[in-house]
Structures are given as C-alpha cells and as structure tokens.
Write a structure and sequence with these properties.
By secondary structure, the protein is mostly helical. The chain contains four helices and no strands.
Amino acid sequence: MKNRAPFLVYTVLRLLAFLVPLAILWFFFPIFREFWWLAAIFAALIGVSISMLFLRAPLTDASARLVERRGGRSEAEQADADAEDEAIDGSAAGDTVTRRED
C-alpha cells in the first residue's frame, strides 16, 4: 500500500503545508485577521518553502507514478497505431492487386 495513491498523499501534504501556517497566522497574530490577504500570502510562501524542503520524496513518488501511467498508455496507443497501419497496408495491397487485374 506504499504506492497506493502518491499524488493524493502529495496533494494532502501540500494543503497541510499551506493551511497549518495560515491557521497559526490567523489565530496567534490578530493583525492578520484584519489583513487576511496578507496572511494568505505569507502562508503560501511558508507552504512553498516547506514543500520544497520536506516534500521532495512524495513529489518524486507522485511524478514517477504519473510517468509510469503515461508510459503504459503510450505503449497501448502505439500498439493500436501499429494495428491500424497493418490494416491500412493490407487493404492498400489488396487494392493494388485488384486494380492490376482490371
């Protein structure tokens, strides 16, 4: 269950990295209740810093999972394209044979 949903884990951790500093700024510093937009900016900066410092492993897991899923999809699409090419080549060869007979 380690690689169950790495993108979901990373998203939740990023939200917590924003919401926890926002709550701390909001409740412990009364000036930020009046200037809520300033609290949101500071919380965003703190959240980005926390995520850059401490969330490298979840980001790597989420990115690897996305690449893995995309790679599997492109192989299936390539197999489908190859099958279509074979079908087109087969019908084109059949058309040239019938044209020569006419």
